[in-house]
Design a protein that fits this description.
The complex is a heterodimer of chains A (381) and B (307).
Chain A: H1 2-26, E1 28-35, H2 42-61, E2 69-76, H3 81-92, E3 97-101, H4 106-119, E4 123-125, E5 141-143, H5 148-162, E6 167-173, H6 176-191, E7 195-202, H7 211-220, E8 224-228, H8 231-243, E9 249-252, H9 260-265, E10 273-276, H10 285-297, H11 306-323, H12 329-337, E11 342-345, E12 348-351, E13 364-369, E14 372-376
Parallel strand pairs in A: 1-2, 1-3, 3-4, 4-5, 6-7, 6-8, 8-9, 9-10
Antiparallel strand pairs in A: 10-13, 11-12, 13-14
Helix pairs in contact in A: 2-11, 3-4, 5-6
Chain B: H1 11-47, H2 54-70, H3 75-98, H4 107-127, E1 133-134, E2 143-146, E3 149-152, H5 153-175, H6 177-187, H7 189-194, H8 199-225, E4 227-228, H9 231-248, H10 253-273, H11 279-293
Antiparallel strand pairs in B: 1-4, 2-3
Helix pairs in contact in B: 1-5, 1-8, 1-9, 1-10, 2-3, 2-4, 2-8, 2-9, 3-8, 5-6, 6-8, 8-9, 9-10, 10-11
Classes of the chains: A alpha/beta (381), B mainly alpha (307).
């Protein structure tokens, strides 16, 4: 008798708790941030998280979105496509998530999109650049980051025209991003008058020894390596190539523009160039204000790069889209795909084309000088 | 614009250059594998006890060394500190995760080891973090250049250290009481106990020594690549050491070292001549074919049959 009573009381308390908590949930808008929080790209994911914390804090403190506060949960895809698919499964079963913000890596987006589309959740990507993402026909996807159709061509031009190296070797990470850039570069470099003398790939997070690649490139006469990889891979390659006496010029992809590269590689990073999509010294008022707030707020005390800037923009963009009527998943997708939808963010003016790609932006280049990444002014491009 | 600081190699010589450089690279990384394989072999080969967590446990020791260096300690003390931690941790793991199930067959200890491996990996992730960190111990070694070949004095040191330890451990096994106890235990535990060998203590010490050796191997890897990350445990210690041991012959220290060098060379040559991307697939393929042809390995140890 007593046990029955205790049990029923317990169930009653649980029911009350659930109904009360769902009452609270109705007062908040929930989104999910997905990115590499651990692993070789963790510094990027953690920067995304810091920017998220900053943006959510600012928005909630100034009245929220339509009076409601933003709330978020974090998914760690470890920059690994399998992991991203698992995170997508988990988040798809959560009916309260309005939108997915992220991920950082194109492979993760490609593997997760079908699951999200089936659940009808929109994905607003701050950082994926593979061109096929917008050509796959996923109606729930938009991105504010520059497509590789532009970035890869610019990277090729940088090696051949700007720096003047005609014998290029491409070292690419074995992901959709790496292969996508490599395919475009392998086509573009000969068109610009250069030669692709080396074409090697590596598996991220697993392959840490580049000595075979270095030997191969050196033997082939490569004088400039286009490294389509993130900061850990580029740092390791720089260190190992100098140890093997191969002082080749290295130009890295957008993932290599994180200052962690200089921390890992040390002195040998001098003279390294990286493609980049946000100027960490941007002096335009909106950008400068963001940079200052981020530096004051972030526990990492460093300048925000593209990971912080684009994530920050994506959250404010979500806010604007919700305020323009995107209060449910379907309505949000409609608002985002409306050709008149535009947003002015710290990364610049954002307007989408019919595929969900952002219009009118161009990448810039950074150089490591005296132990820091500085802006590089293009002279011949 | 041609890079002014690259030695361009004449076309006729390129083939030779590349082959010899692959050889040098392969022997270098093979030496690192060898050191770790010795530690692994000590436990697995001689005691025939699986240590699936070998890598991840000594990785904790390597990270301790990393922290000590960041705290500006003397590099030698930092390495010794890491080795001590590796030794102690392996002994603790043996005492609580393996000894209770020593006679429970093969599966249970394996599961236990996998569990320990995950715990260690998570400890590292929690305390130090999941990324790759710069590892600077102040010992860089200089470069030696013969024309177009480059190798570092560091690579020679690692090779010499690996061979030295192999000889040291062989000596330990043949000529000391501890070594004889270990060999006795590998032949039969009940009999050794009957003749007065302190079985539990000896096994514990072997695990400890294996751990300490693993830490040295891991640290040399970090010095060589100037970076440290949590994969130096599983990837290097458990997988490469195990492959080297199987290649070289279980129970044979000489085999472990040679197996490791063969593994390093195979990786380097396959990576260079076949494919850097599918390198691991090819290496594993060769490994599987080798096992089918010669399952006992290159130098199978002559261990007397248990009566």
């Amino acid at each position: 008798m007593k046990n029955n009573f205790v049990f029923s009381l317990f169930i009653l308390i649980l029911v009350v708790m659930f109904s009360v908590s769902s009452c609270f949930a109705a007062e908040k808008i929930l989104f999910a941030l997905v990115g590499p929080m651990t692993g070789d790209s963790a510094a990027e994911g953690l920067q995304m998280l810091e920017a998220t914390k900053l943006a959510v804090k600012e928005i909630n403190e100034s009245g929220g979105v339509n009076g409601k506060e933003f709330e978020y949960i974090v998914g760690d895809d470890e920059a690994n496509a399998n992991q991203a698919a698992m995170v997508a499964q988990k988040f798809s079963s959560n009916k309260d998530i309005l939108a997915i913000l992220g991920p950082n890596n194109s492979s993760c987006a490609i593997s997760a999109l079908p699951t999200y589309e089936k659940a009808g959740i929109p994905m607003i990507s701050p950082l994926t650049s593979n061109p096929t993402l917008t050509k796959l026909g996923h109606k729930n996807f938009v991105r504010i980051y520059i497509n590789d159709d532009i970035q890869a061509v610019d990277m090729s031009k940088f090696c051949v025209i700007e720096l003047g190296f005609k014998n290029v070797g491409i070292l690419w990470e074995n992901t959709d991003w790496g292969k996508g850039v490599r395919d475009i570069a392998a086509k573009t470099i000969p068109e610009l008058g250069g030669k692709v003398l080396g074409d090697e790939s590596f598996v991220t997070a697993v392959d840490k020894d580049y000595s075979s690649v270095i030997t191969k490139f050196k033997g082939a006469g490569v004088d400039c390596v286009l490294l389509v990889g993130e900061y850990t891979a580029s740092a390791l390659f720089l260190m190992q190539s100098r140890n093997l006496g191969y002082n080749v010029q290295v130009v890295g992809g957008a993932g290599s523009s994180h200052p962690k590269l200089i921390e890992i590689a040390g002195k040998v990073s001098e003279g390294f160039y990286a493609d980049c999509n946000f100027n960490p010294y941007d002096e335009r008022p909106k950008a400068a204000k963001f940079i200052a707030s981020y530096q004051a707020f972030s526990k990492f005390k460093d300048s925000p790069g593209e990971w912080g800037a684009y994530t920050y923009d994506v959250i404010y963009l979500l806010k604007k889209a919700i305020e323009m009527g995107g209060t449910t998943r379907e309505k949000l997708i409609e608002v985002l795909h409306n050709p008149d939808f535009e947003f002015d963010g710290v990364t610049g003016f954002i307007k989408f084309d019919q595929y969900g790609d952002v219009l009118g932006k161009k990448p810039l280049f950074l150089k490591v000088e005296s132990g820091k990444f500085v802006n590089y002014t293009l002279t011949k491009m | 614009m041609k890079s002014t600081n690259i030695n361009y190699i004449s076309p006729e010589k390129v083939g030779y250059f590349m082959f010899f450089q692959y050889l040098i690279n392969g022997l270098s990384i093979g030496s690192v594998y060898a050191l770790i394989a010795i530690g692994y072999n000590l436990v697995y080969g001689i005691l025939e006890l699986l240590n699936f967590a070998h890598g991840d446990v000594y990785a904790v020791g390597c990270f301790v060394t990393f922290s000590l260096i960041l705290m500006k300690q003397n590099p030698i003390l930092a390495i010794l500190g890491g080795m001590l931690v590796g030794y102690i941790m392996n002994r603790i793991v043996e005492r609580f995760a393996y000894r209770p199930i020593r006679f429970s067959g093969r599966v249970t200890p394996t599961i236990s080891a996998v569990g320990i491996a995950y715990i260690m990996r998570n400890i590292i992730m929690k305390i130090w973090g999941p990324e790759t960190y710069p590892f600077n111990i102040g010992l860089r070694g200089s470069k030696i250049e013969f024309g177009n070949f480059v190798f570092g004095t560091l690579q020679i040191y690692i090779f010499v250290i690996a061979i030295s330890f192999m000889l040291l451990i062989s000596f330990l096994l043949k000529r000391t009481k501890l070594g004889q106890s270990i060999i006795a235990i590998s032949q039969s535990i009940p009999t050794s106990a009957l003749v007065g060998v302190p079985v539990n203590r000896t096994i514990s010490m072997v695990y400890g020594i294996g751990g300490a050796l693993g830490v040295i191997g891991g640290i040399l890897y970090c010095i060589y690549y100037q970076s440290i990350f949590l994969g130096i445990g599983f990837m290097l210690g458990t997988m490469k050491a195990w492959m080297s041991t199987i290649l070289g012959g279980i129970g044979s220290l000489k085999g472990a070292v040679i197996g490791a060098l063969v593994l390093g060379l195979t990786e380097s040559l396959v990576g260079g001549y076949v494919s850097s991307l599918y390198r691991d697939a090819f290496v594993w393929g060769f490994f599987m074919i080798f096992i089918l042809i010669r399952p006992k390995g290159l130098f199978p140890a002559q261990i007397s049959e248990k009566v």
